[in-house]
Each structure stands twice: as C-alpha cells, then as structure tokens.
Design brief:
The complex is a heterodimer of chains A (658) and B (316). Chain A contains 25 helices and seven strands. With 658 residues, chain A is mainly alpha-helical. In chain A, the strands form three sheets. In chain A, strands 1-2 form a two-stranded antiparallel sheet. In chain A, α9 runs antiparallel to α12 and α12 runs antiparallel to α17. The N and C termini of chain A lie far apart (63 Å). Chain B contains eleven helices and one strand; from the N terminus they run ααβααααααααα. Chain B is mostly helical and 316 residues long. The longest helix of chain B has 33 residues. The radius of gyration of chain B is 19 Å and the shape is globular. The chains are: A mainly alpha (658), B mainly alpha (316). At the A-B interface, α13, α14, α15, β4 and α20 of A face β1, α3, α4, α5 and α9 of B.
C-alpha cells in the first residue's frame, strides 16, 4: 500500500516534470509573449502572481530534466533503504514545486515564499533520511546558512519594494532604474550574498558538502544539480534584469566581484573535492566548482554587457554560463544517481571500502564513467562544450576589455584550465577506486546491479549529456530567448553561424576570423580512429592471450595492493599543503624488535580553510558575546522592562525626526 | 579556392605524416642521447621494429581487470591520433575550414582525454604501481594545463583565434620577428613541452624504477598489441606537442598551394623544425638529472610565471 503510494507520488512528479518541460520548450522555441498569471490574493498587503519569460522557462527546463530522472529513480531507491518513504515523497513534491515556483514568481513576495518553501522542504529531506547526530548537525548548519542568506535577501527585497511601492517585478524594475550607483551596488551585493549562500559560493559553501550528501541520493541530485541553479537564477534575474540600470553598462564592480568569486569557487571547490573519500561528499564539493564556472561566465557577461564590449561577446559569455547550468544539471544528476546506486547496493559511501564494482554493476559503472568524462570537461561530451565557450568568451572578451579586466580574464581562463585538470584527476580517482580493481570489502564484493527503474533514471540524464555534447547547436536555440531578454542579441547568433553542428566564436569587429569547432565531427573522427585502432589492437589471430595475476613483488595479490584514493590524492595534498593544512598521525605498534611492526594505524585529514579561518572565528565570537550578555540576562522582570524603556527612548531620539 | 575535398585530403595527409613520422622522432632522440653518451646506440628505425614486434606478440592480462582495460589502448590511441588532424604541418589554411575540426583548446582537451583514460585504466589492474603512475601523471598533467592555456592565450591574443592553423597562417608574415611576449611564451612552452612529452627533468621515459616513473608506471600491465597502441600514442603525442610549438612560434615555410616546389619547402621546413626541437629534448635529457617529483611543481611554476608575464605584456 505504502509502496503503491510512493510509486504514485513519484509518477505524478514525473508527469508534472514532463509537462513542465514541454511547456518550457514550447515557450523557448516559440515567440509567444511571456505568460503572466495572477494568483488569488492570500495576503492583504501583497498581490501575488506568476510570470514565465524566457529565463524562467529555461530554468524550468533544468528543473524538469533532473526531476524527471529523479522521479523515475526514486521509488526503487527509497524502497531499498529509506525510512518514512511516504513523507519523503511528499517533501520531494513540495521541494520540486517550490523550486519551480521560485523560477516562475512574478513578484518579490511570491519569490520569497517559494524560496523559503524550497529551503524547508529540502531541510526535511536532509534530516529525515538517516537519523544520526551528524545529519542533524548538517541540517542545522544548512538551516542557519540558508536563513542568513534569506535575511540578506529580505533586506534587499524590502528596500526595493519600499521604493517600488509594491512587490511586482515590473514596478521593482522601474524603481530600480532610478537608483543611484552606490545604492544599486549595495543592493546587488546583498542579493549576491543571499543567493551565493544558497548556491554554495566560496566562502559561503561550508554547509553544502555536509547537507547535500545527507539527503537520499536522488534528492542530492536535485539539490546539487538544480537547487543551486535556482540560486544562480536569482543572480541572473537580479544582476541582469531587475537591478540593471536603464541602458549602459552594468557597474564594473559587479562583474569583477562575480568573476573573482566564480574563479575562487571553481578552484577551491575542486581542490577540496579531491581530498574526499566519501563519494557523495566529493560530488557535493564539485557542485561548488561548477557554480564557480557558471559565475565565471556570468561575471564576464556583466563586464561585457551594455556596450563595454560587443554584444555578441557578452551573449557568448552569458550563453556559456546558461548552457553550463543545464549541462551541470545533467552530469551532476547522473553522477549522484550513480553514487546512489552504489550506496543502495553496497551500503557504502566511502570509496576506500569499495572497488571492483564494475564487474557486478556494469550499467552503473559505465554510466558513472560517462558522467565523469562529462564533468571533467573532456570531449566529446557536454561539459567540454560549455567550458569551450567560456574559454572563447574569456579570450575574446579579455582582448576586447584590455587592461586589468583583460588580464583578469586571462587568469580566470588559466584557473579554469587548472579546474578542468583537477576535476579529471578527481574523477580518475573516484571512478577508478570505486569501480575498478579488486573489491576491498565483502559489501563491495557482493553488490549487485540496481533495478531497472534506477538505471532508466541514469540513462535519461546520460542521454542528455551525450545529446548536449554532440549537438549543442540545438540547445543554443533554446538559449535565444533568455539571452535576448537579459542582453541584446541571441545566443544562437553568437555561436551557430555555421549550422547547429558547428560552434563558432569570434569577434567580427576585431577583424579576425572566428574560431570554429565541431564536436560532432570530432566525435565521428574519434569513432573512426577507434575502429582503426581496434583493428591494430586485435593483433595476430593466433597470438596467445592469457590471464594472470598482477605482479605484486612476489606477495599474494590482495585488495590491499590496490592504490587507495588517499594515496592517489597525496601528491596534490603536498603540493597544495598551504591550502589544505594536512594533518596526519601514524600509530606504530612494534613487537620485541623495532623492525617487527604489529599494527600500523594511519589517520589523516585536511581542513577547509574557510571553515577554520572564518567560521571557527565567527563561532568563537558569537559564543563569547553570548557569554558576555548572560551577565545582564538575570531573569528579573524589572531589568528587562528597563532595557525595553532604554531602547524605546534611544529609538525615539534617533528616528523621531525622520 | 580551397574546396572541402582538398581540405579533407590535406588534413588526412598531414595526420598520416605525423603518425608515420612519430616513431622516427623518438628514434632520433634516442640516437642523439646515445651519441652524447659516447655510445653508438640503436638505429633510428628501432621504434618501428619495437612496434612491429609488440603487434605480433600475445597478451597477458590482469585477472582482476574489467573489460574497460582492453578498450583503454584503443581509446587512448584514437584520442591522441585525432589531435593530428588539428595542426598545420605542411599547409596553412587561409580561411576557416569548411569542416572545422578544432582548435588549440580541443587539441589540449583531447590529449587530456587520452591521459584520463590511461590513468583510469591503470587503476584497473589492481597493482600499486599503476595507481602510483596514474596519480603522478594526472598531477603533472593538471599542473601543465593552466600554464599551457596562458601560453596559448598570449599567442592567440595577437591573432584573435585559437585555431592553430589560422594562428600559424596569420603569424607567418611576421616569421621570426619575436617580441618580448613571444620569447617569454616560447620559454614557457619549451618547459611545458618537456613535461608533456614525458622527458627529463619531469619524467624519465627509459625507466621502470618505481621511484622515478610517471608515464611508464601506467603501462606496466599492458602487453602485446595493446602496449604497441599506447607506445604509438605516446610517440604521436610527442610529435604533436613539438608540432604545436612549431606552429605557434615558428610558423615559417608553410605551403599555401600544392605545387611540388612549395611542398618540398614545407616538408623541409617541418623536418628542420622538428629536428631542432627533438634535438632540444635530447640535449636537455642528456645534460640534466631528473627532478625529484615534488620539485616538478616549482619547475612548471616557472613556466606558469613566464606565460603569465607574456599575457600581461600583450594585454596591458
């Protein structure tokens, strides 16, 4: 009965996602005007409405894609090991609906309500999966960080609503036109902080790698693949649309801030991901990296927008950021579902206890490898396409901007290259240690393949990764409307001058021809050459082929000879020691002779500098202040009345004239 | 007017030339090293004989390996050879090609794909050496990438494109009139070329000693035709790296038509450039010791700083 209810709930979610996807694609590919729906007036002080324009529709598509896959995947996954699957199904529905509502909100009030619903629903999912103290603590940190972000948003929203005399987006837009420079920038920075806390921008990312892995895996996929994008939607909506000045460029400080934050998030996110052994935690850190990559594109678009650079280049940068949003949703969703399959079938998340899964879980393994290639920005899959566009935008935009901004673009490009290299190393480790070699524990040895619905969920996202990689021109068409709304110029015009299968990027005014690639053609070439190489590989027909154990210096080969993830990441731990501050402890128990080692225990860990430098200090300060206040919190009612009186008098003195 | 058909034919001819000549370059470097060590050394054709021998042999596979392990040599060779279609060897295109295959970024990404697949495969056999080689190779690879991107950018800034063929064609009239940024970028590129080709002082191609090996560690469990595929891929990657250096910094002598005279000049110029760069590799390998692995980041950091300065000089 409960099982049927869970299936029914998920099927409803999948159906709604499919309908939303059809609606979004229809809106994006047609030229029908933006949809506007007035909601019934629940609250006397605010009229609520929904407004779906190109940008909303694009993010609706992102939500729908991962939701459909997660909805197909979910029931089998929950059936395997969840507690309270019915509650989780309900919370999942509420979570997805509120994310869609955020993107479709037509006024600040609806936006904020949906935003809060999204936080609470996802919090429910984080703390309900496994009841451990660690999860509860992760949930609490998530709640605190999310509400600190909401507080920043609230200040910005109320300041805007007060000036606009209402919550409606058109009124807000009109009011924002009249803002002076410093106020506009202050409001943007508040919004950036609020959305950044949700998007996991460094240094506001600390909750993310704790909270995302704690949820059920298909919810992790939604949180990492989609919820962060909803926060990115906020940055796009406010930076390019609501707060943008009428005509003319956006303030240069916005572009610089977003570009620098994006670069820092990309590099720090992937560096921290490299040192994780927990498969889901590693993936969560990669979300910090990918949000960084999206922000690099967005920041560059801000620098180039409004006439500071050619419209085509600003469009290219924005299109790269938006396309990466969709791409990341596809491959991160796929990877989280893959990690979920591993967790469901082996009960383990720690890759140091796994290994050799590829033999028993071939579908999961090869789909995970596909996701790994995509996220490492390797051709011919979708991650490469959006990073190539970001690189081109950085190069061409850097040349156009010149000076310090140009140099910043160059540095961002080289850091993006470093990020790609680090991601490749990280996923060589994650895939190799988890799926290849020998199983390290009995759980890993006896794991079996996931049921068909789970594989179907992964296949859907894998197909999206391949399609977006091989024929990116089609996806570009969907970006035309959002980019035309936020900037002047359509995305497909910026990159698909030579048909949908060729990507071209160039600065026509600079006199240089465009740079063109065709991932489709590159993939065809790869396939052709692989066919030729396979002929070479086959060798002579009569050549002997035998199996033998791997040489382990004369000892019996066991799983302990397999290279571990910790060992794999060791060179980087030493090279970037200044950032990781690695700590290790080796306990050696020897027998009568110091050369006979009875027992050897190794513990090691790295720190997240943001946590130790920033959060630990803030926590100490808050604790110390609380202790200080306690002296005045005596419990006597007279004292409290005196405080209230003093506060009232001071407020009257301060604000009475205003 | 360059038709699509001639373009495809020229690309195929250039790719075939690079693949066919790749073992010879390795042989030449080996010969030069031997001469510098006062040995006679093996013939320059020895790498071809080695490949032929390996292709005839049988294979021994690790009993723990998954089917992926068998596919690794094929995919690595395919990804590496695909990069040969993206370089100007004899001809420099005048305009963007009708069938655009790629640019410097796709080229670097394909080499990264080959490295990724090889490293993943090395973890499959379940020995510590494979993992060790994979870990080190990926580390060096990711340290090379940012500097390589800066170098390519500093050159591309002056031409407005990252397509290597167009870059070479556009810089050809300048010939060898290098400005300061070019010299800095060339210096950076030569450092990176040593790392990308897996040569001393970053890696030692001649050893299987576990303390020193990077690339070779990943090949330990491959044998027979599979090993031949990977060996050929390594040689092709070396020649591709040298050709990339030549295209970015020495774009002279490239032909614009198919007349025998200009083709002969182009072939001669290509041979001279590759010989000079291969000589550089051999000379460095004979006169320096291999760096300790944790010194390599400092060495590559020098390349990063030079590339950054080159870009700064160009942009500011």
């Amino acid at each position: 009965m409960a099982r049927a209810a869970v299936w029914l709930g998920h099927l409803v979610i999948v159906g709604a996602a499919a309908a939303a996807a059809v609606f979004a694609v229809a809106l994006l590919s047609g030229s029908s005007p933006a949809v506007h729906v007035a909601l019934p007036r629940f609250f006397p002080f605010a009229a609520m409405s929904l407004a779906v324009d190109g940008l909303s529709a694009f993010f609706l598509l992102v939500i729908a894609l991962v939701t459909a896959a997660a909805g197909v995947y979910g029931p089998s996954y929950l059936g395997a090991h969840a507690r309270g699957p019915a509650v989780q199904t309900l919370a999942l529905g509420a979570f997805v609906a509120s994310m869609a509502l955020v993107c479709c909100a037509g006024d600040l009030f609806t936006f904020l309500l949906a935003w809060e619903g999204m936080t609470l629903a996802s919090w429910t999912l984080v703390v309900s999966d496994t009841r451990s103290e660690e999860n509860a603590r992760a949930g609490l940190l998530y709640l605190v960080m999310a509400h600190a972000g909401t507080a920043a948003l609230l200040v910005a929203f109320l300041a805007l609503a007060e000036r606009a005399g209402g919550f409606d987006f058109p009124a807000v837009r009109a009011a924002a036109r009249g803002l002076d420079g410093p106020t506009r920038t202050a409001l943007f920075m508040l919004a950036l902080a609020g959305f950044g806390a949700k998007a996991g921008v460094v240094p506001l990312h600390v909750w993310l790698p704790k909270a995302h892995p704690a949820a059920p895996s298909h919810v992790s996929a939604l949180m990492s693949g989609v919820m962060l994008k909803v926060a990115a939607y906020g940055i796009f909506r406010f930076g390019f649309d609501l707060l943008a000045p009428a005509g003319g460029p956006l303030p240069a400080s916005w572009g610089w801030t977003v570009l620098l934050l994006g670069t820092a998030s990309a590099v720090i996110g992937v560096l921290l991901a490299l040192q994780q052994h927990d498969l889901k935690r590693l993936l969560a850190f990669h979300s910090v990296e990918n949000v960084g990559i999206i922000l690099i594109g967005a920041g560059l678009a801000m620098l180039l927008a409004g006439g500071r650079g050619p419209a085509a280049l600003a469009t290219l940068a924005l299109a790269a950021a938006l396309l990466h949003t969709l791409n990341h949703a596809a491959f991160k969703g796929l990877l989280f579902l893959g990690a979920g399959s591993v967790l469901a079938r082996s009960g383990l998340r720690n890759m140091e206890e796994l290994g050799g899964l590829a033999r028993h879980m071939p579908w999961t393994a090869w789909l995970f490898l596909l996701g790994a290639v995509a996220i490492s920005a390797l051709p011919p899959l979708n991650g490469f396409v959006s990073e190539w566009m970001t690189f081109q935008a950085l190069l061409l935009g850097g040349v156009r901007l010149g000076g310090a901004s140009g140099l910043l673009a160059g540095v961002a490009a080289s850091m993006l290259a470093l990020t790609g290299g680090l991601a490749a190393a990280c996923f060589a480790k994650a895939f190799g240690v988890t799926f290849l070699g020998r199983p390290r524990t009995a759980h890993a040895e006896h794991a079996t393949e996931s049921p068909a619905p789970m594989i179907a969920g992964m296949l859907l996202l894998a197909a999206a990764c391949v399609a977006l990689g091989l024929a990116p021109g089609w996806a570009m068409r969907l970006l035309d409307r959002p980019t035309a709304e936020l900037l002047v110029g359509a995305a497909s015009a910026a990159v698909t001058a030579r048909g949908p299968l060729v990507l071209s990027a160039g600065d026509a005014a600079a006199g240089a021809g465009p740079t063109e690639i065709s991932v489709t053609l590159a993939a065809a070439l790869l396939a052709l050459l692989a066919g030729l190489a396979a002929l070479l590989r086959r060798g002579r027909r009569d050549a002997p082929r035998r199996l033998a154990p791997t040489w382990t210096c004369g000892m019996t080969p066991t799983a302990r000879f397999d290279y571990t993830g910790t060992a794999f990441a060791k060179p980087l731990r030493l090279i970037f020691a200044a950032l990781y501050r690695p700590r290790r402890e080796i306990v050696k128990e020897t027998g009568p002779s110091p050369y006979v080692v009875r027992r050897l225990a190794y513990t090691g860990e790295v720190v997240d500098l943001a946590e130790t430098l920033l959060y630990a200090r803030v926590k100490r300060w808050v604790t110390a202040t609380s202790h200080g206040i306690r002296a005045y919190s005596t419990g006597r009612i007279h004292g409290y009345i005196a405080f209230v009186l003093v506060t009232l008098v001071v407020s009257l003195l301060l604000f009475a004239n205003g | 007017m360059e038709t699509t058909l001639t373009h495809v034919a020229r690309t195929a001819a250039q790719a075939a030339l690079l693949v066919a000549a790749a073992p010879l370059v390795t042989g030449l470097v080996q010969k030069l090293k031997a001469r510098l060590q006062c040995r006679r050394g093996a013939s320059v054709w020895q790498p071809y004989r080695d490949l032929a021998k390996l292709l005839r042999k049988g294979t021994v596979e690790a009993d723990t390996a998954s089917p992926f392990f068998r596919a690794v040599p094929v995919l690595v060779l395919a990804a590496t050879v695909a990069t040969t279609a993206m370089l100007p060897v004899l001809w420099a295109p005048a305009q963007p090609a009708a069938v655009p295959l790629g640019d410097a970024i796709l080229l670097v990404a394909l080499l990264a794909l080959a490295r990724f697949l090889l490293a993943v495969g090395a973890l499959d056999a379940g020995g510590a050496f494979g993992g060790m080689g994979a870990s080190r190779e990926m580390t060096v690879g990711l340290l090379v990438e940012p500097a390589l991107m800066l170098t390519v950018f500093s050159v591309a800034v002056s031409a407005g494109t990252t397509e290597v063929g167009l870059l070479a064609a556009r810089r050809a009239p300048l010939a060898l009139s290098w400005a300061a940024p070019d010299l800095l970028a060339l210096f950076a590129m030569l450092i990176l070329a040593l790392a990308e080709t897996g040569r001393i002082p970053v890696d030692n191609p001649d050893t299987h000693l576990e303390l020193t090996m990077l690339h070779e560690g990943m090949l330990l469990e491959h044998s027979g035709p599979g090993l031949a595929c990977i060996a050929l891929a390594t040689q092709v990657k070396q020649l591709v790296t040298l050709t990339l250096v030549a295209a970015l910094f020495l774009p002279v002598g490239l032909a614009s038509d198919s007349s025998p005279a200009s083709l002969a000049i182009a072939l001669g110029a290509f041979a001279a450039k590759v010989l000079a760069l291969a000589g550089f590799l051999g000379l460095v390998e004979s006169s320096y010791a291999k760096l300790r692995f944790f010194r390599v980041p400092h060495f590559l950091g020098l390349g990063l700083v030079c590339a950054f300065l080159a870009l700064a000089l160009r942009v500011l």
